[in-house]
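Issue: copy button drops trailing tokens. Both records pasted manually instead:
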Amino acid sequence: MARTGQPATRHVAAVQRAMDILGVLADARAELGTNEIARRTGINVSTISRILATLASGDLVTHVPATGRYRLGLGVVRLANAVHEGLDIQSLARPYLTELAARTEETVTLSVPATYEAITLDFAQSPLSVRSVAEVGRTSVMHATAVGKVCLAYGGSLPAGPLKSFTERTIVDPAVLDVEVARVRERGWAQALGEREADLNAVAAPVLSTSGTLVAILGVQGPAVRFSPRAMTTAADLLTDRAARISAFL
């Protein structure tokens, strides 16, 4: 058979059934007996018993003698840890950047927090001819961008000195900025309406670790004439959902 470099599309039935059983045990988050697993998967009990015995030999499931039921084994934890160690935020986020750019038709960015700013790590450009242009390595000003406000809301700091004004809408009063940052934390996303560039609007949402630490920021930005407050709110809903999906892997 010629090698194409692509994964095979035909499935092995026994492996698929084993995956179904593991999935049922994961979703249950509790011990299950063979009859209950059979009911949830549609696989007959005798087949389930043989597959469970095989999975138990690899420590992927554990038999609980006191109840006669099964639960996920420590082998699953070992595999999960191996996957987690091989992940990086850019690889995790890339499919969502592409999807969000297609759905919003605006430029989508992935940024990482730094000491007094956020830095663009990756982006997906808007498919439209009139668009906001992103650059890898570009920094986001903390008090004048949606991405920067997310940083401030989740532990970031402002540089010393007065807040610089970039447009007439830039927030330069620290007290007003404090209120804005508190709002970001409360609702889970930030916005900037012509605050860094007069004709640019943006929204952003945090990607958090399991401990609540800010790992990255997803942002959508576009021309103010098109990326209106209503469009921004719609984009923010998508952003927070996709950011949460990425966070689930961290």
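Record 2 (pasted manually too):
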Amino acid sequence: MNAAGACSLCLLPIGRLGQQREVNGQTRQFCCYGCCLAYQVHHGESDEPGAAALLIRLGVGAFLAMNIMLFSLLMYSGTFVAADGRMLSLVHWLLWILATPLIVILGGPFIAGAWQDARRFRLGTDTLVSIGALSAYGYSGYQVVQGSGIVYFDTATMVLLLFTLGRYLEAQGRVRAVRSLAPMLAAERASVRVVAGGIDTMRSVATVQSGTVVRILPGERIGVDGVVIEGHSACEEAILTGQPETQFKSPGARVHAGSVNGYGQLLIRASAAGTDTRWIQISRLVRDALARKSLLGGTVDRVAAIFIPFVLLLAAATVWFWSARGPFAAALLTGLAVLVVACPCSLGLAAPLATALGIGQAARRGILIRSGGALERLARVRGVAFDKTGTLTQGKPQPAYLAVEGTTECEVLLRATTLAAGSEHCIARAIAELGQAHGLTVPPPATDIQARPGAGVTGEIDGEFCAMGSRGFMTALGWTVPEELSAITEAPGHTLVYIGWADRAYGLLALTDAALPEAGEVIKALHARGVATLLLSGDTAGPVDQIAGALGISRWQAGLTPEGKVQALNEWASKQRGPIAMVGDGLNDGPVLASASVGIAVGAATDLAKESSDITLPMGGLGSLPWLMQLADRVRKSILANLAWALGYNAIALLLAVSGLLQPAVAAGLMFGSSVLVVMRSLRSSETRPDVPGAAIAAHIYST
């Protein structure tokens, strides 16, 4: 630990230029920005070292490029006349001296990448950049040695600088996403207190095996998945479930790595190895998602694999053609112009800049987008399917009535409250709150509690197997439902939950869940965009029909298992002409979110829903969905327009270069102008305020 007020890197006192940054999920203090970058490079995780190193390279490269461009401008403006030949020669040597470290600093990663691609017999954007930059640099160096007045070090500089800027924007976007998920991504660094032979020892979570006993003190973050074997407490599982309410834990209750222990000490027996917890699985999935290349990024590489051989052949043919009709030096200059214009710097900025600006806009509204590819796919979505409970409804079911047969209401409620403690579903939370309202704050201990996604929950209470769930769940267990309970019909908008033990149902609890105030506006906004909607729910037909009718959703399916939701979504997707998005929040939504083209989890989503989604909306953020879709549409249009400009410029410039009408100096100028236009278009697009129904609701939510 550092002393208060000391830099985390050099340990010097922090003055007025001090910096405070979050690195690896922890807040660090630095005396200057240089120490901050150095710490990120040497101690950062994931993309932080790479992004910090790119920024350092970019800073040094920009300084060198600034001087190169300044002297190049003097030459292009005609400042030097024939009498200044000696001075001009010195300027050429100075440019060569400045360009050489720039080629190493900025061009090194591209050259290394091109070499790796070549070893695998592939061609990518690294190859394209390397050829353009090295050709301009090599030709200019040759001209300096020959004493010629034609050099193009500025061209090599511009190519490398702009492509490095594009890569830095991509890396920085991933770093910001990782920082927003820092607690979730800190799983691998966790330590736990292992109990062995009556002695507590701190060990890395990676050393924990299934069956290991771990002690959790009040206020500590739980590092393993397991079952409580001793102690009572309440755990905050917001990092996994999105719910701020604490969950009561007693012997037999399951606990999840990543949750925070409350007031009591717990002994936990690990149910999985420390490297196989759901927390670590989420961390790995998120890191993999953030590292994925966007769709357009992959498209650029595929285009480059065809484009580069064509450019090399075209350049060689150009040199051959003009050398047969004039001096070889002039032919070589014409071939260089072909190579220079074939390296569109605007192509390196088109997708990264627009995507980074779009992800940044979403982040300011609390929306987490895992990758640029998710934003691209969302812009092409033609249908959106919704879960019901907790997604379109408030997710806080209210009890309507309780019916029992063969026992007392207190007994049914006691067993229901105990089983509810082992489930993350909002219906289970509502039942637990109902039990607390009736004074059941410390329900009897239950063992082997298992949530059955889309069906119910089971567990053993005092050695007796108990279950709670839908009518179909009772039937699947082979249990009987008394006629008194079977005769109770489902009223519109009511969800019926059966509670039973000893091979039969003893009680029935009816709950109601109202639609979210903004849900209707969201559905209207989607329909106005021509986007079809579908409601998929594991609930019974009555509540699903009532919610669908109230919100204007014409297609719905009820009583679906998680597998049934996947099948229903796939069948619906086959009828739509375009990608399909799925919005959900529950444990049973994980598979269907993963199978959708774009999975969207709402803020109150369970851990499985969030790990399976591409986009996570904040708490109460359903109203921002139309705004997000319009943002994705604007980003995609901006990227396509930028790419069209870059490729169109290349096509025209290549024709001019092959015909000998375009000199490398002019090509460099047009290349710079193209890049400036791409940046201006992207910035202007990011400042446009969307005007869609539901945006006002979202703005109100985030401003409060």
